[in-house]
Specification:
Layout (H helix, E strand, L loop, with lengths): L1 H9 L4 H17 L20 E3 L9 E8 L9 H15 L7 E5 L3 H13 L2 E7 L4 H9 L3 E5 L4 H15 L4 E3 L6 H18 L6 E5 L4 H13 L4 E7 L28 E5 L1 H15 L5 H16 L2 E8 L13 H8 L1 H7 L7
Parallel strand pairs: 2-10, 3-4, 3-6, 4-5, 7-8, 7-10, 8-9
Antiparallel strand pairs: 1-2
Helix pairs in contact: 1-2, 3-4, 3-7, 7-8, 9-10
The structure holds pyridoxal-5'-phosphate (PLP).
The site of pyridoxal-5'-phosphate (PLP) has 19 residues, from α4 and α8.
């Protein structure tokens, strides 16, 4: 192969080169080598193995610290949630709890729903999702395109309201549904233990010293973190949360004011970094303009926290996670209070104290 390449270089652009390239392609096809994962390709095989991108332009002021980011919007469903969705569904199949006639049911504010919807379409399952009525039009459109049945809950009750409604629907008719329950299902964090964590170890050649990741269900941080800690107990784990219950960072939870996910175990963390909505949006904007990474606000929050951490240590390799892309969001927080009102349970309770959850 090396000699073919050397020859190709020496006659670049010539007819001889084309003949050589075609011969090489034929050789590779015959021998089963060459790029491409599988001949019988399924979109499910494209989940995971995302690039780990070095943040270069925004880290010039850091001396001994590097920041790398997992480009999770490059998953086929457009977010990190493809990983958890696939594992939840396939573990359901393996355990016998998810059968052909059952409907996959969960509450989600978007990304997990899109992941379930895409995977279910490929595998031939039906999906019903309970979502707060105020999820963005972009997300509604995507879910409808995949043929999902949407059940809307009162926007004043936020994602916790949707969660309780999904539970109610399931309990009223358990034979009809497979309750995916991303907040309490261990398959969620196991997806990241088996994939995201392993990829980071390989991609950094075992050099990662810190992991910084946003917390929604906690699946990403718990699974990836457990795997990294097992590989090297010295690796430090940091969660990223909105600074208050009144926030507009879609996908993230302010744990103190939200229903705590069953899979979230704070005891394995070395710390939590709290980020303001405005800081998250501004950082997402900068990531697009300065690094060419058009990402969503939870990615902005993760990078803001990573930079803060990087500025407080002398040496290290920080890995962070960019969960989804900027195209899922209508605007870069031109009116941040509007964004906060959409996602803030605390605020929603304040303006409507009659909407008590528990
Ligand atoms: C945009 C976005 N960021 C971050 C997260 C957090 O991921 P996890 O649920 O694994 O904690 C989510 C989860 O829904 C998300 O949608």
């Amino acid at each position: 192969m090396a000699s073919i390449q050397a020859k190709a270089l020496s006659c670049a652009g010539s007819k001889e080169l084309k003949v050589l390239q075609i011969r090489q392609l034929k050789d590779e096809l015959d021998s089963g080598r060459g790029p491409g994962k599988e001949t019988a390709f399924s979109l499910l095989n494209a989940i995971g193995e995302t690039p780990l991108i070095r943040i270069r332009n925004m880290t010039g002021h850091l001396k001994g610290v590097e920041i790398f980011a997992k480009a999770e919007w490059l998953n086929p469903g457009g977010s990190i949630k493809d990983r958890a969705g696939l594992r939840i569904i396939e573990d359901g199949e393996r355990s016998g709890q998810l059968t052909r006639e059952k409907i996959i049911l969960d509450s989600t504010s978007g990304n997990t729903g899109i992941a379930y919807a895409m995977i279910a379409a490929i595998k031939g399952y039906r999906v019903e999702l309970v979502v707060p009525e105020n999820i963005s039009e972009e997300r509604k459109k995507a879910l409808e395109a995949y043929g999902v049945k949407l059940i809307f809950t009162d926007p004043l009750l936020g994602s916790d309201g949707a969660l309780l409604e999904a539970k109610r629907i399931y309990e009223a008719n358990p034979k009809n549904y497979f309750l995916a329950d991303q907040y309490n299902n261990p398959s969620n964090w196991k997806a990241h233990y088996e994939t995201t964590g392993v990829e980071i170890i390989y991609q950094t050649r075992g050099r990662a010293t810190h992991l910084v990741a946003g917390v929604g269900t906690g699946g990403t941080l718990m699974g990836t973190g457990k795997r990294l800690k097992e590989f090297d107990p010295g690796i430090k784990l940091f969660g990223v949360q909105p600074d208050s219950g009144f926030h507009g960072i879609e996908g993230l939870k302010h744990m103190e004011t939200a229903i705590r996910p069953g899979i979230y175990d704070e005891s394995i963390l070395d710390g939590t970094i709290f980020v303001k909505t405005e800081e998250a949006y501004e950082m997402a904007r900068r990531l697009a303009r300065e690094e060419g990474l058009w990402v969503g606000p939870s990615s902005g929050a993760a990078l803001w926290a990573s930079l803060k951490l990087a500025e407080s240590i002398e040496k290290g390799l920080i890995v962070t996670i960019l969960p989804d892309g900027g195209s899922r969001y209508p605007e870069y927080c031109s009116d941040c209070d509007k964004q906060k009102r959409r996602f803030s349970l605390k605020y929603q309770r304040e303006i409507s104290p009659s909407h008590q959850l528990l």
